[in-house]
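Researcher: Go.
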Amino acid sequence: MNEVIEQLKEAIRRKVERFTNLDQIQIYNELVEFLDEEIRISMQQEYNISGWDDE
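Model: Structure:
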């Protein structure tokens, strides 16, 4: 999974190079948050977990 994440980061970096630094940071942060949520949902579905609580 780390290899996929690194590939995504590189692809994102190449796509946002044309924007200003502030725009790049905002776009990158939004994409990271989106991907984090997608990974969380995927893990929950795969392992049949309802949340990240340590219950």
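Model: Residues 2-46 form one domain.
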